[in-house]
Amino acid sequence: MSVSNYVFVAILVSALVTWIPRITPFVFTKYFKLPKIVAKLLKFLPITIISALLLQCLLQERTGGVPTFKLLECIAFFPALFIAIRTKDLMKTVITGVFVIALLRVFM
Questions:
Q1: Got the DSSP string for 32-85?
Q2: Around Cβ 34, how many Cβ atoms within 10 Å?
Q3: What is the residue extent of each domain of the chain?
């Protein structure tokens, strides 16, 4: 197998491995009804994922020490949170966060 064929096969296998876990839940939930408790828990899943990603962005990990907060990201968090609560629009929230962090990096 030549290098280009190997790379092509590696890309296809990688795409398949990434695609299967993302599509499989949709296929299963289309044909099977979930128990009420599972459906209720799944309603909280996006909130927990967003919270975990957000906390990961706001904290600076230190090897062998306690994580500390990143100052600029924490300052930019509050205007973005305000826009998120006020508008409930993800695009406006992201644009606000990016704009505020850009301004903070220019002036600080």
A1: SPPPHHHHHHHHHHHHHHHHHHHHHHHEE--TTS--EE-HHHHHHHHHHHHHHH
A2: 12
A3: 1-32
**Which pair of structure tokens corresponds to residue 74?**
């924490």
Q: What is the pLDDT along the chain (108 residues), one digit of tens a residue?
A: 677 889 999 999 999 999 888 888 888 778 888 888 988 887 887 778 888 888 888 999 888 889 899 999 999 999 999 999 999 888 999 999 999 999 999 998
In terms of pTM, does the model score above 0.70? Answer: no
> Encoding tokens for residue 5?
């064929």
